[in-house]
Amino acid sequence: MEIRVNLGERSYPVLVVHDEAVHFPARLREVCGARPCALVTNVTLERLYERQLGSWQAELGFVRVVIEDGEQHKTIATWQSVLDTLLAARLDRSALLIAFGGGVVGDITGFAAAAFLRGVDYVQVPTTLLAMVDASVGGKTGVDHPMGKNLVGAFHQPSLVWVDTAALATLPRRQLVAGYAEVFKNAFIGGADMFAFINQGHRAVLAGEADAMVQAIQRSIRVKVAAVEADEHERSGRRALLNFGHTFAHALERCMGYGSILHGEAVLWGIACACDLGRRVGSVPEQARTAYDELLLKLPLPPLPGRPDPQKLYEAMLSDKKARGGTLRFVLPTEPGTSVVRDDIGQEAVMATLGAVFGGN
Ligand SMILES: NC(=O)c1ccc[n+]([C@@H]2O[C@H](COP(=O)([O-])OP(=O)(O)OC[C@H]3O[C@@H](n4cnc5c(N)ncnc54)[C@H](O)[C@@H]3O)[C@@H](O)[C@H]2O)c1
In terms of Cα–Cα distance, which of 235, 234, 261, 238 is closest to 250? Predict the structure, then answer.
């Protein structure tokens, strides 16, 4: 199944397949041509996929770049070490980088591709659910800075995204559920059809049933692609809808401490908060309340390492890089499958939501 991302001369295909690793080198050459390549991955994936990577390397002859595993390594130092290896290998501007991993590997590799010799092409081969439905598509690349997450980076679209859902077989359950947050989120922004799909199909997806999972991934990629096509550089607000639940999630990650809670886990709680706030400020129409009640029963909320302090969460929201000039921006649900960006929500309503969602935790 091919989903096209239409961005003029930066257009590219997203190929969603199941268990087709043997065909990857040929498809890569078909789409990108025969070129000198470097594959970036991390130590965990290299260990798990040694045989697959070995056979790809035999066919494609790439330079292998292996970084440490974890968000704490998504740094300027790691990014520089990738560039050092590419330079030492004397790759030129015809080089093609291949990111084989989750969002961390994808973001670093994309940013290395954006900067190496002022920009070379790259391909995303996402191996987590989160990277398949979110991070690998859309061209946002970058690394973290001591001042905050993703503060240094570039928009740089890949030339191909190769999503092989077979990789999910080795993904730890906790990571799968965290990635599912970005699928579930699409119920609120992907139209009535996506709302119904999540409502009906969520058990099968979470149980890892192959057909349901492939459907969920394809549908989610389409939602992301539509937003990226409409607002590639996040200027018009259309792409901002993808941040459903994220204003709360970013604050939760900061307060709980990065590493103690996964991004997707925070997004699941953020979804609960956005829905509560939407009801409170009246963005959810009266007649849609039952539909939201039914859907929210299915939200797989993970346990939190402690009870977050609503006041601290609110302060963390205000200091988020996306809270421009102290104005908080929320994506709130309206009709099922549709949401709206609001920057007129008062502190009282937000505090009430934080108290209601985290009060009993
Ligand atoms: N660029 C974007 O648009 C965008 C969007 C969302 C998130 N992100 C970024 O993505 C990152 C999070 O991505 P993530 O959730 O994929 O985390 P991750 O890349 O850290 O991967 C999670 C863990 O799973 C392991 N793993 C990956 N694939 C595996 C597999 N198939 N089998 C077994 N283990 C596997 C990794 O080694 C890692 O330990 C964050 O840095 C976030 O900022 C970027």
Answer: 261
Q: For 50-105, how does the pLDDT look when each residue is reduced to its tens digit (9 = 90+)?
A: 999 999 999 999 999 999 999 999 999 999 999 999 999 999 999 999 999 999 99
CA distance 331 to 275: 10
Which residue, 151, 300, 320, is CA-closest to 252? 320
Give residue for tokens 């969002």. Answer: 103
- Phi first, then psi: give them for residue 169, nearest 5 degrees: -60, -30
- How does pLDDT run across 191-224, given as a tens digit for each residue? 999 999 999 988 888 888 889 999 999 999 999 9
CB atoms within 10 A of CB 143: 22
Backbone angles phi, psi at 152, to 5 degrees: -125, 125
For residue range 91-129, what is the model confidence (pLDDT) as tens digits?
Answer: 999 999 999 999 999 999 999 999 999 999 999 999 999
**Could you tell me the two tokens for 43?**
């130590």
Q: 285 — alpha (psi -120 to 50), left (phi > 0) or beta?
A: beta
301 and 360 Cβ atoms separated by less than 8 Å: no
> Which tens digit of pLDDT belongs to each residue from 135-187?
999 999 999 998 888 999 999 999 999 999 999 999 999 999 999 999 999 99
Please state, in angstroms and rounded to a whole number, the distance separating the CA atoms of residues 133 and 360. 32
Ligand 1: does its nearest atom lie under 6 Å from the Cβ of 139? no
Q: Which of 130, 165, 183 to mutate to test the pocket of ligand 1 (most atoms within 8 A of CB)?
A: 130
C-alpha to C-alpha distance for 351 and 191, rounded to whole angstroms: 29
- Among 128, 157, 234, say which to mutate for ligand 1: greatest number of ligand atoms within 8 Å of CB: 128
Residue from 266, 45, 56, 271 nearest 168 by CA: 45
Q: Is the pTM of this model over 0.85?
A: yes
